[in-house]
Specification:
The chain has a domain of about 70 residues: Lrp/AsnC effector binding domain/regulation of amino acid metabolism (RAM) domain (Alpha-Beta Plaits), CATH 3.30.70. About 20% of the residues lie in helices and about 30% in strands. Strands 4-5-3-6 form a 4-stranded antiparallel sheet.
Length: about 140
Amino acid sequence: MTAVGSRCAPYPRQLALTPGVATRLALTVVPVPPNAVEAPVITAIVLVHVEADRIPEVAESIAALEGVSEVYSVTGDADLIAMVRVREHEALADVIADRLSKVAGVQHTETHIAFRTYSQHDLDAAFSLGVEDAD
């Protein structure tokens, strides 16, 4: 994927704004070269088996881990599903094996790596190829 345009650098701190006081905030815009390529995101879907009486606390602890974007409480064999998104394969071991699996209450995990992402937008576009509106 090629990124073109500008990116805003994230502001590293929260701002405490005082009502009635004029506040000025400057954002730094960093131009992105036309040939710049963003690093791909590696997505892992982690099925997490948890001690039954600890599901809410374990889910909150896992959700707080860097690299974990969402945690779902689900039905079925697993108790939780954690979505892990990282930029490098090595980071998967850091997030899943070194931190997530060691959260108190986690019994075991099963990890699936996503090869490709399909969104509703992609599916709508794929199924509408060659179809024209009747209007």
